[in-house]
Design a protein that fits this description.
The protein is an all-beta fold. The strands form 3 sheets. Strands 6, 7, 8, 9, 10, 11, 12, 13 and 14 form a 9-stranded antiparallel β-sheet that branches. A 3-stranded antiparallel β-sheet has the order 1-2-3, with no helix packed on it. Strand 7 and strand 8 form a beta hairpin. The chain starts with a strand and ends with a strand.
Length: about 180
C-alpha cells in the first residue's frame, strides 16, 4: 500500500495500481492528530448527498424578539451545526417583560432555509414554560420557524382552547427551556 503523488491529489495505491476503498490512512493505535481542510469530506460515497462541508459547535445568547423591555436572570444557548442541520438547546429565565408586541418569538443562531425541496422548513420545539400566569406549574409548549428568519414563534398548550394550542403570551416571566432542529439557508 502507498500513496501516489498526482498533479493535484494524493491517491491511494496498492500492489502497483490505484486503489479504491481498500487503503486506510492510519489505524487504531497509529492515528493522525489533526486534519485541516479548506473544503469538505465525502463520507460513504461520492455524491453531493455524501458531502459534509460544515461542522460547528458554539454558544449563543437566546432572547425574546418582540421589542419592549425584557430582563433575564439567565440566557443560555448552545448549538451544533452539521452541514445545514442545526440543533439548538436553550434555557432562558425572564425576570420582567413589558411593552412587547406581536406573537412571542425567541432568537436563533442561524437564519432558516428559504426553500424546502425535500426538507421541512421548520420542526417542533419541545420546551417547558413556567410564567406568572401559572406559577409553580410546568407547561409544555411547541414552536415553529418560518422560512428565511432567525427566530421561532412560541405556542403553549392551552387546555381551554379547542385547538389545543395558542400563541405564548408576551410580557410573561419565567423559564423557557428546550431544543429545536431546523435547516439553515
Amino acid at each position: 500500500s502507498g500513496v501516489r503523488f498526482d498533479a493535484s491529489a494524493y491517491t491511494p495505491f496498492k500492489n502497483g495500481s490505484a486503489a479504491d476503498g481498500t487503503v486506510d490512512l492510519g489505524f487504531g493505535s497509529g492515528r493522525y492528530k489533526d486534519l485541516y481542510l479548506s473544503g469538505g469530506i465525502y463520507v460513504g460515497g461520492t455524491g453531493s448527498a455524501n458531502h459534509l462541508d460544515d461542522y460547528e459547535e458554539g454558544a449563543y445568547t437566546p432572547a425574546k424578539n418582540n421589542g419592549g423591555s425584557v430582563s433575564y436572570t439567565q440566557q443560555n444557548g448552545y448549538y451544533i451545526k452539521v452541514g445545514r442541520l442545526v440543533t439548538v438547546y436553550m434555557d432562558i429565565v425572564i425576570d420582567s417583560a413589558s411593552s412587547e408586541s406581536g406573537s412571542a418569538q425567541i432568537t436563533l443562531p442561524f437564519t432558516s432555509q428559504t426553500t424546502s425541496p425535500s426538507k421541512p422548513s421548520y420542526m417542533s420545539f419541545v420546551p417547558w414554560i413556567v410564567d406568572t400566569n401559572f406559577t409553580s406549574s410546568t407547561r409544555k409548549a411547541a414552536g415553529f420557524i418560518n422560512e428565511g428568519v432567525s427566530y421561532m414563534f412560541m405556542y403553549r398548550y392551552n387546555q381551554e382552547n379547542s385547538s389545543g394550542y395558542a400563541y405564548a403570551n408576551n410580557n410573561v416571566t419565567g423559564r423557557w427551556a428546550g431544543w429545536i432542529n431546523y435547516y439553515t439557508a
